[in-house]
Design a protein that fits this description.
Layout: E1 4-8, H1 15-23, E2 42-47, E3 50-56, H2 65-82, E4 85-91, H3 98-109, E5 114-119, E6 141-143, H4 152-159, E7 175-180, H5 186-194, E8 212-218, E9 221-227, H6 238-255, E10 258-264, H7 271-282, E11 286-292, H8 303-315, E12 323-325, H9 334-349, H10 354-367, E13 380-385, E14 392-397, H11 405-418, E15 427-432
Parallel strand pairs: 1-3, 1-4, 4-5, 5-6, 7-9, 7-10, 10-11, 11-12, 14-15
Antiparallel strand pairs: 2-3, 8-9, 13-14
The chain binds guanosine-5'-diphosphate (GDP) (2 copies).
One guanosine-5'-diphosphate (GDP) binds next to helix 5.
Subunit structure: Associates with the 50S ribosomal subunit.
Family: Belongs to the TRAFAC class TrmE-Era-EngA-EngB-Septin-like GTPase superfamily. EngA (Der) GTPase family.
GO molecular function: hydrolase activity
Length: 433
Amino acid sequence: MSNIVAIVGRPNVGKSTLYNRLTESRKAIVDDFSGVTRDRHYGTSEWTDHQFTVVDTGGYVANSADVFETAIREQVMIAIEEATVILFVVDVTTGITDLDDEIATLLRKGNKPVFVVVNKVDNTSQVSDATEFYSLGLGEIYTLSSMTGSGTGELLDEVVKHFEDVPLEENNRPKYAIVGRPNVGKSSIINALIGKERNIVTPIAGTTRDSIHIHYNQYGHDFMLIDTAGLRKKTKVKENIEFYSVMRTIKALEEADVVILMIDAVEGIESQDINIFHLAEKNKKGIVIVVNKWDLIEKNSKTVKVFEEQIRQKVAPFTDVPIVFTSVLEKQRVLKVIDVANKVYENRARKIPTSKLNEVMLPIIENYPPPSIKGKYVKIKYITQIAGATPMFAFFCNLPQYIKDPYYRFIENQLRENFEFTGAPIQVWFRQK
Ligand code: GDP
Ligand code: GDP
């Protein structure tokens, strides 16, 4: 399921502040100037039992004034097409502006749930000012202060009611999403894998080619490929190409079991790639990194090692990820990508019997117990894998609160060394026994 909450609105109404509030990312930059480049525009959020992705369209605003309104209009259209729910942010301190009216007109024509979020209502005396926004004709309004966080809970209670929490399509085939920046070779690898079957693509109005599911059943492999390649929506504003492809990437990623992240060997791993990597990790997806266009690299005996090292440094701390070097052009290791993705799929679904887990891990813990704190010792009694789609382990002990980060990392590393979880995010909990 992919539930995407898109935050739209004109500049300076507080979209980015709300985004930070919802994703609690300390990294994103909030600035008094609009149009500031922000390093992250999407992230995961949770409310009650629902996980979803929040996209801040503000990060994709074009800088030049002449395309500015066009850019915002297009973003709203893309959000209407792609998002599950739209948060339309307006500013109580300025009231309704022309651009607000324009956006409201587009949103009224769309068929997606829209929440009018009246922001900067920092104190109750401003609540009555907010009633003006009913005239946007989008129904109920939600007053909040992104700065203090007040009002966000009431909003999210309503937002999550619109989520699709039942999978649209139930099947047991593994799902692999091929993602990466434009021009890394996504279309090429898909063509190399499926050849002429490519024609099953059903184009959707307004897009040159949509992300689609391709059933692959050859050479003993049976899985679904989720293709995000060739997503070049016709757009007048170049920033929106990125915005659009990000929306599609998030959707494909959330649906997938394993994410195949393609990187251009010449350009190396960039911040956008790292963002996708972390999003996949946060969503507990299996991950395979593919370094394509390997034919363009001058190589010696150390080149692979150097590349691997650089990539692992950038994606740290989750470094136990397979990296495959391909040349789709020269048909090198294309099928290996699928073999590795299958392996990661297995690793992600791997269940370790409790007896085996205890037999292996308890002696390791005995040799290297958690450090004592103020003379108190943590005694780990037994370990069990928790049922779920991805590997999760509970370590039962007397004083779970005394376990610190380094010991979590130690335990995770030991699990990885002793069992095969390469490419799969794992979770470790210490629980009171
Ligand atoms: P964006 O351009 O829509 O993403 O807006 P920003 O998130 O960058 O916010 C624009 C300005 O409004 C910044 O100076 C924020 O600090 C301020 N702001 C955002 N939310 C609130 C709020 O709830 N109350 C007040 N008083 N100011 C806010
Ligand atoms: P996409 O935008 O990620 O779908 O990328 P494409 O598959 O359209 O590829 C972009 C360009 O890179 C095309 O010109 C391809 O022919 C080229 N390309 C793809 N794979 C390779 C490769 O392994 N080596 C080289 N040299 N070029 C490649």
